[in-house]
Write a structure and sequence with these properties.
about 300 residues; disordered C terminus; GMP Synthetase, Chain A, domain 3; 8 strands; 8 helices; Ribosomal protein S3 C-terminal domain; single chain; about 20% strand
């Protein structure tokens, strides 16, 4: 049988903290547990499933005898807080009426949404609802996570992909995902995508390094692509600049040479021809004058 387990639950209590932190007697434990689930569903339905779409990643709850502390991790804290804190006050009143207890809300910003598995899954589900190409969507999200500094990403989707009659499962893997290593910081997220032709499940694993290490930094060349070609004369092998090496190679066609050496030879030959022309002309003049002189001498005789 399969031995699959949630990476979050596998590391909870060992290298990862609990999402609900409180103590209760046995008679109230079940009541508080159900209440926590209601709070999380209420916040998800109010802020994630309808405008303002605040990109809620996780909700952590702490309890004391007097109040309930709710920590909301979001990538868009401005939408949760609202102008002058109006939206937070409305949410606080709604949670107090739901739990019949005093509620204190704290907003925690998610600084790198591309490294949060839950937010990646929600983004993919939203794009699949708009009938985007699932292959292109998976590749784009995986590449964005790797450029943000992740050491490994795995994304799996299953269902009637593209509206096909037969459901199937597709996945994309970048880097490595050490699921069995407890010291590895592997984030896991799941999001359902409800469409007109069925429900598609989206699962995301993100390996962010080891616990205790520095947070991953985005890559310097996040734009990607090959380096641009230089045009200052320091080109590739056998080239030189475009005006020197390339032009010289093109000039040698059919025995003709346009290089500097061939040009020098041609100029010397031209000069020798020009130097020989006056001598030849002088010789011709002498030969022309000699018969005329002979005829004159004969006439005088």
């Amino acid at each position: 049988m399969g031995q699959k387990i949630s990476p979050t639950g596998f590391r909870t209590g060992v290298t990862r903290g609990w999402q609900s932190r409180w103590f209760a007697p046995g008679s109230n434990f079940g009541e508080f547990l159900v209440e926590d689930e209601k709070v999380r569903r209420f916040i998800d339905d109010r802020l994630n499933r309808q405008p303002p779409y605040a990109a809620i990643s996780a909700v952590e709850i702490e309890r004391t005898r007097e109040e309930v502390k709710v920590f909301i991790k979001t990538a868009r804290p401005g939408l949760v807080i609202g102008p002058k804190g109006a939206e937070v006050d409305k949410l606080k009143d709604a949670l107090e009426s739901l739990t019949n207890r005093r509620v204190n809300i704290n907003i925690v910003e998610v600084k790198s949404p591309d490294l949060d598995a839950k937010l990646i899954a929600e983004g993919i589900a939203e794009q699949l609802k708009r009938r985007a190409s699932f292959r292109r969507t998976l590749k784009q999200r995986a590449d964005a996570a790797m450029q943000a500094g992740a050491k490994g990403v795995k994304i799996a989707v299953g269902g009637r992909l593209g509206g096909a009659e037969m459901g199937r499962r597709e996945s994309v893997l970048r880097g490595s995902i050490p699921l069995h290593t407890l010291s590895a910081d592997v984030d896991y997220g799941f999001a359902p995508c409800i469409t007109t032709y069925g429900t598609i499940g989206v699962k995301v694993w993100v390996f962010r390094g080891r616990f205790g290490e520095e947070p991953p930094k985005p890559e310097a060349g996040a734009g990607g692509g090959r380096p641009r070609r230089r045009r200052d004369g320091a080109g590739g092998p056998g080239g030189g600049s475009r005006g020197q090496g390339g032009r010289t190679g093109r000039g040698q066609r059919g025995g003709r040479s346009r290089g500097p050496a061939s040009g020098g030879q041609s100029t010397q030959s031209d000069q020798t021809k020009q130097d020989n022309k006056p001598a030849e002309s002088a010789g011709q003049e002498q030969s022309d004058s000699s018969p005329q002189g002979g005829e004159g001498a004969q006439a005088s005789e």
